[in-house]
Structures are given as structure tokens and as C-alpha cells.
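WARN retry 2 of 3 for item q-0093 after timeout on previous attempt; input resubmitted unchanged.
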Amino acid sequence: MALSGKLIGYVEISKNGDVFHDLLRHKPHEMVEMVPDQVHDCELHEGERGAVGSVITWHYTHEGKKKFSKQIIESVNEENHTIRFKVIGGELVDELYKSFKHSFHVEPKGDRQVATWTFEFERPDTSVPWPTSVMDYLCNLVKDLDAHNNTK
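OK item q-0093 returned
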């Protein structure tokens, strides 16, 4: 029996939601220059960069190991700065989870912004852990990208 789960992480950022949404959707390859120890490459396989249905592969280091994640962009909402991905290849779905989707959303909070990651996943059994280390990785990535953008 598979076990469905949902995990949500929040990060306060100083930049406008447009900046992060644009970076993740249209310029993910620029993250390689901003955080080279964490993100090594972002390859476009099908479609246009940032378009729904496009297939991309992220190459990154997590927990000291080089990994990859092949994803399809499932939906985009420009108005509320949301982008949703379905993982279709890589360690997350090839070795751990039966299915894995994640979305990124930014909304105002006072004079700052809040970036939100939401994971929806299906574990094959209880021996597979919740993806908390992946959530920590992505929340820290957002913090590092925010810090990088504030030094410009």
C-alpha cells in the first residue's frame, strides 16, 4: 500500500516574487552561476524554457552527492507566482518515491515576501522517509539565491 504525503516549507525573502518566479521559470540556468556548489546544470530537453509541458533536468549536489532530477512543468500561474513540477526521473522517483510533485509560490508578507515550497509525494511503504532533507535543501537554496541577489 502506498502512502501519500504533503510537506510545506516557508522561507522569508527580501526580493519581489517576480524575481524568483522569473528565475525558476525562465532563467534556471542562471542559478549555476549564483550557487555553483548546489546547482551544477539545468538542461532543457523538450519545449521552451518556462513553458507548460517543457522537460528539464536539474543537476545538483544534495547531502554531499551529485544527483539529478528530470521534471516536467505541469502548470504556471503568473498572477500568484506559482510554478508546479512533476518529477519524472532521477533519484527521487527512481529510488525512493512512487510519485513526486513540487510547487513553488511567492506571496507578500508585509514589506517582505514568503517563498513556499509544497511537496506532494507517494511513498511505497513506511521505510521510505519523508523528504525533509530535500525540503531543507530547497529552502536553503532559496535563502542563498536571495542573499546572492541582495549583493548585486
